[in-house]
Target: TetR/AcrR family transcriptional regulator
Amino acid sequence: MARPRQFDAAAALAAAQNTFLDKGYQATSTRELTQAMGLTQPSLYNAFGDKRSLFLLALDDYLNKSLRARIARAEANHPPAQAIAAFFGESVERALADPQHRGCMLINASLDASSDDPALREVVAEELDDLRAFFERSVRAAQAAGTLDAGFVPEDVAANLLAVQVGLRVLSRVMPERALLEAMVRQALSMLNLPSMPPPSC
Model:
């Protein structure tokens, strides 16, 4: 009896992630995924499930290594007001560091998710809401610390900052210009009297 084919699951998932980033969820075919991952279609289904299941696994892995890690790092290493500025500073740097300008997998998925897949849309919406919640936590904590005007409505500020982050990542795909991206963030932070983004690291 033939032994099942062995493969590196982490490497295969990374290949799928890159393929989804390159082409988007809807435009990526199963054939393209199997070619990128070095798997047959039955092996892909056995290991990862269908295309949506694979995408959700790839997205979860991406978020663990990027957005969730960045939020945790900002909250652990900075006071609340500076955490917001540091998060945006890193967003700009990440957007400019990708030579292919593929954008953020989560933001791309929010634009790509179709109305006939409500489960996928719900997952994406929940992740975006976690980002909004980070902004709201930071705003409330900064107000409690006296570093942000208590007159601001935390929910409104968080919604606005989420819109800036989404807009930044979308715009960076077609206009990856440092001056433009920094201006977007600088204006949003300035209107709230928040600290400026930290300078780029060398």
User: Anything to note?
Assistant: Residues 70 and 87 are 7 Å apart (CA to CA). DSSP finds ten helices and no strands in the chain. The radius of gyration is 19 Å.
